[in-house]
Amino acid sequence: MPHTLRRLDGRALLVDPAPVAMVWNEPGRPHDALAVPGLTLGPGDALIEVELATVCGSDLHTVRGDRSAETPLVLGHEAVGRVVAAGERAVRSDGTRLELGDRVVWSVTASCGSCDRCARGLPQKCRTLAKYGHARIVRGWELSGGFATHVQLREGTAIVPVGEALPASVAAPASCATATAVAALDAAAGRVPLAGATVVVAGAGMVGLSVAALADDVGATVVVSDPDPGRRAFALRFGAVAVADPSAPTESDASLRGVLDRLSRSGVDAPLVAVEASGSPAAVRQAIDAVDVGGVVVLVGSVFPGPDVAISPESLIRRLVTVQGVHNYAPHHLEEAVAALHRLRRTRPFDEFVGATFSLAELDTAIEAAASGAHVRVGIAPQRRRHA
Fold it and tell me: How high is the mean pLDDT of the chain?
């Protein structure tokens, strides 16, 4: 059913039918539907009607209780949608005015732009940070996550148009997985030229596979390590020249060491870059051990509590190895992610990431499907009716 918007006094809006957000409270409890008929848009805010949201691994970590979260909250931070209302100062990430009807993705975070961290180029760690799909709902900002019919974007959010040609299943994950992959390779490129380098990617989830495609696109030789044979096969379609099984014995030809030794004998240089995208402590250890002298290890997967990883400071020092953490991203990474998806979607199967798609009312079923591991991503289409 189409929504109608009526402006009341000042910046107040009345939406009919009322937007609905799915509220999560605690592990094991189903989501509750919350109707939000009225809202107030700030001068730099925008109201987005969600076309498609996708279930990220961090949503699953929260629902399982693997990571702490202030509740109640509206989960979901990977989404694409259309602008249906905008404040007078609402702008796209390039500074141009946001227009009604723009089809957009948006950053995970909203930042002030003026604190010391924003000034240092770390807006994702702003002193007054707000995070979509992660923040406790408060009166006046109930539409704060992607698992809803609408999201209220706050001033300081990077809003990037995606046009009409990019499929929703490709566009939605850009605001987390793809942009994080861009940020990871940007961090590596600050230490090592990627063109011609050998890059090891640990973890063939969506971030890892996106890293593989992006690294291959700039001329790197990519090796992907993942224990799942199906995901290893998928990695070959995203630009990997070889895949390894991290659970194989070290002396096995299928292990990461065995694969790298084989590539070395054929003239491939030792890795100078490793991106760890799984969060497995063993994979972190393997990534650090894999890089050659002067290499860089970028850690992006360990975003939930886990055991510590023992490292040898002497080994890092003697090999001149840099270990860098990347968490979320800056606005320009999201812009680059959207550009890369437009460029690569016809040569790499980004459209196959999203498997089953559910209505908003079926959110709990969708999360169960995502947790099964049968799909890289599961979709939520808020404007769609429940399955018959």
Answer: 95
Question: Cβ neighbours of residue 273 under 8 Å, at least 6 residues apart?
Answer: 188, 192, 194, 197, 198, 199, 200, 215, 220, 291, 295, 296, 297, 298
In a 10 Å sphere around its CB, with 0-12 CB exposed, 13-18 middle and 19+ buried, how is residue 160 labelled? buried
Q: What's the rounded Cα separation, in Å, for the pair 196 and 221?
A: 7
Contacts of 267 (CB under 8 A, 6+ apart): none
Amino acid at 86: A
Domain identity same for 139 and 28: yes
pLDDT of 386 over the 60 cut:
no
Distances (CA, A) of 305 to 42, 150, 280, 308: 36, 31, 11, 9
Report the distance separating Cα 149 and Cα 200, nearest Å: 39
Same domain, 144 and 247: no
Q: How far apart are CA 109 and CA 373, in angstroms?
A: 27
Range of the domain at 375: 4-175+353-381
pLDDT score recorded for residue 388? 36
* pLDDT for position 387: 47
Mean pLDDT score, 224-250:
97
Quick check: is 336 in a domain?
A: no
| 44 and 56, same domain (yes or no) | yes
List, in sequence order, every residue forming a beta bridge with 350; answer none if it has no partner. none
